[in-house]
Amino acid sequence: MTEPVCDLDLARMRRDRIAKLGAAMEAADVDSLLLCGQQNVSYATGTRVPAADHIRASWWRAVAVLERGAPWPHLYTDFPEGAPPEWPDEFLHRAIEVETASGASELIATLGRGKVAVDDAPFPLWAALQALEVVDAGAVTGPAKLTKTPDELECIRRAQSINEEAMRIVRAVSVPGALTTELSGAFLRAVAELGATANTVDPVFQVMPASVAEGPFSITGEPVFPIPTGADELQLGDVLWIDTGINLHGYASDFGATWIIGCEPNHRQRDQFARWRTFVDRALAQVKPGATAADLVEAAKRDDGLRPWLSYFYLAHGIGTDSAEMPFVGTTLGNAFDASITLVPGMVLVFEPVVWEDGHAGHRSEEIVAVTTDGFVRLSEPADLDRGGS
Amino acid sequence: MSRLDWCLGMMVRDDIDVLILGREANARTVSDASRLWLAGTRAFGPGCVVVRRSAAVHVLANTDAVVPEGFPVDRLYGVTWNPEELLASLTAIEGVPEARRVGVDGMTPLAHALLTRAMPDAEFVDAGPLLAQLWGVADPEKIEGVGHAAIVARDGLEVMRAALVAGATPHELRGVCAAQFAFLGATTPAFEAVAAPFDPAASSWLPPERAFVDGERVTLRAGALRYGWEASLARTYVVGTPSVEQPAPGGWDDLVAACVPGTTAGTLRARGAVVHGAGRGVEPWSDDFVLVADLMIAIELRDDQCLRQDVLRITAGAPTPVTA
Fold first, then answer.
1. B3-135 has which CATH code?
2. In which band, very low, low, confident or very high, does the pLDDT at A389 lie, cut at 50, 70 and 90?
């Protein structure tokens, strides 16, 4: 078990986030912050909406508008019962259909004068915004979300703890003959019963081929991951890569592991995990304020200089109300980008290197830490080979 | 004709050179891609590109495991966190750099900057009207796909009903529904199942954190996404042993009878109904959307006692229940 970061106070967390957004608006000289992306609305307001497929969620979207200097964002939602209890009535409104031209105009009319930062717009809203000075909301949400308060860290830790507990239940039924979709069902039931606010991603239980050539076509020549879970029957000795995530109080978890089905991991698989451990430990040894993402990349490289992770992803990513958010470490954005990211307390890193031995599959796990004043604290249990096993 | 063929025909008619789709349901509609399902909204990005001149659909994916068999792998472009790489992928697509009118289903300032570099002469227009036309196409695959999803959704609601007893919690019922969906092979929902106290004044979508009690009215909702097609239903029960399904709300039969070709969505909404299409996801029909035979319609109605939602297939005569 991980240790609590603090006594969770959700109202305090929401106040702190609004304050951070307000400060970021000042710094970016933004007058109105218009948020339509649900993860950003969740960040700005803490409101809940039902978890749904993309287009349904788009149609149902709650919208938040924070004016410079205002104490609260205006929240427009079809689900007022999802608003936090302290939300003032004058800042809680019925939903505006920003998917329509009339709704878009109605919303634009509520904005103050000046520069508007917007994160995502249905086209009618985008068209209506063209009369204004518009910038990307990342100029505000980016700095605000980059570091987490202790309450935010505690939300991530608790979300991860629920995710980990559910995976212990799933591990027990991951036996030869089981269908991977049954694993998904066991997971989804477990996270609901354990109190998750929602599930956020189709749980991935992917049987890995021994070699890339034996697997599906790969555009990069690397292992393909993740692929949506089909009804594959598990076989003795299968190497199963897992990636799941849930939402708790708006915050994401991210659980990655490699399981060997029906038998003990062999010598080679233990060695693969040992190397994975080494790469992460080398990177973790660098995690402290002042280090850069480039330092982590350099530390985690293989002895031959190659990067032990999937080139289309990263060595590590941040997590918060989005399941993958800044800081990104080791992407193809390059060394200059990595060197521009300096670690500060409150940043969260999800490490997910990959050890792949073509012909013998490989190991992928994930581990979450938060940067502290002198190092890091774990928000996930340490990875292990057959994590969640007995 | 495939939905892509229909789409290309509409692009000709609407003079759209390139369609850039960010919403997963829209990408599913034109490409049948089955990429990883994520809950909630995502910022607009070029996840799927349809080019009129080459009659080709291009999909953002690292593998052909998520597109139909036979999909040309040279029409896949790779996942990346680097916008310059994405830009290079887009400009490498035949017909994209010289596009003049480009239909999009959303926009962000960053995406606008990127797409303007990829297509310097482009005027961006709303893809919504074209997509609405696509929803209006009667499609045998839609009938079959929504039908499969309906079987899953109905089964999910049935296990929730069986588990609806005094002391059961909304979380537990959500869990049994998801497990049943997965047992039937559907690990993705249209929405996460809901068990909520029926309240004529509330949405009945976000339940409180408490157990249900005997005699309480509870609305159950189940919505499945099966092979990328969706269907959903809702019923209201009085909690007991067993819990008892409540009759349909007043006006339900008349509402169903009104679901015939030629009727508009607005006419049905005037009866107090929530109305949308069911297909590759919700099809959010506008008020002037006209029903035609073989469309799949989702209708929801409530009175002060209960709420009911079903998917129906429009026919030349009375609609056929799909989820009932």
1. 3.40.350.10
2. low
Give the CATH superfamily of B140-321. Answer: Creatinase/methionine aminopeptidase superfamily (3.90.230.10)
Positions in chain B whose pLDDT score sits under 70? none
- Within the 201-260 window of chain B, which residues sit less than 8 Å (CB to CB) from chain A? 202-203, 205-206, 223, 225, 230
Q: What is the pLDDT of residue B184?
A: 97
- Domain co-membership, A182 together with A308: yes
How does pLDDT run across A19-66, given as a tens digit for each residue? 999 999 999 999 999 999 999 999 999 999 999 999 999 999 999 999
Alpha carbon distance B237, B173 (integer Å): 14
Other CB atoms within 10 A of residue A174 CB: 24
Greatest Cα pair distance, chain A, in angstroms, is: 66
Look at residue A384 and tell me if it is in a domain. no
Task: Kindly write down the DSSP assignment for every residue of B103-158, as one continuous string.
Answer: EES-B-HHHHHHHHHH-TT-EEEESHHHHHHHHTS--HHHHHHHHHHHHHHHHHHH
Confidence of residue A390 (pLDDT cuts 50, 70, 90): very low
Domain ranges of chain B: 3-135, 140-321
Q: What is the CA radius of gyration of chain A?
A: 22
Nearest residue, CB atoms, A79 vs list B61, B190, B206:
B206
| Domain that residue A23 falls in | 10-145
Amino acid type, A80: P
What are the pLDDT digits (tens) for A218-245? Answer: 999 999 999 999 999 999 999 999 999 9
Residue among B41, B179, B188 minimizing CB distance to A186: B179
Order of all β-strands in the sheet with B18-21? B76-77, B56-60, B48-51, B18-21, B101-104, B123-126
Q: What is the pLDDT of residues A246-266, one digit of tens each?
A: 999 999 999 999 999 999 999
pLDDT > 80? residue A387: no
Q: What is the pLDDT of residue B160?
A: 98
Give the count of domains, chain A: 2
Tokens 């998904």 sit on residue: A184
CB A187 within 8 A of CB A166: yes
User: How many angstroms away from the CA of A267 is the closest CA of chain B?
Assistant: 31
Q: Is B38 in Cβ contact with A220 (below 8 Å)?
A: no
CA distance A251 to A5: 15
Model pLDDT for residues A87-138, shown as the tens digit of each residue? 999 999 999 999 999 999 999 999 988 999 999 999 999 999 999 999 999 9
pTM for the complete prediction?
A: 0.97
CATH code where residue A128 lies: 3.40.350.10
Residue A104, classed as helix, strand or coil, is helix
Residues of B in contact with A316 (CB under 8 A): none
Rounded CA-CA distance A116/A112 in Å is 9
Helix axes A180-193, B170-183, angle to 10 degrees: 180
Taking contacts as CB-CB distances below 8 angstroms, the residues of chain A near B195 are none
How far is the C-alpha of A247 from the C-alpha of A51, rounded, in Å? Answer: 10
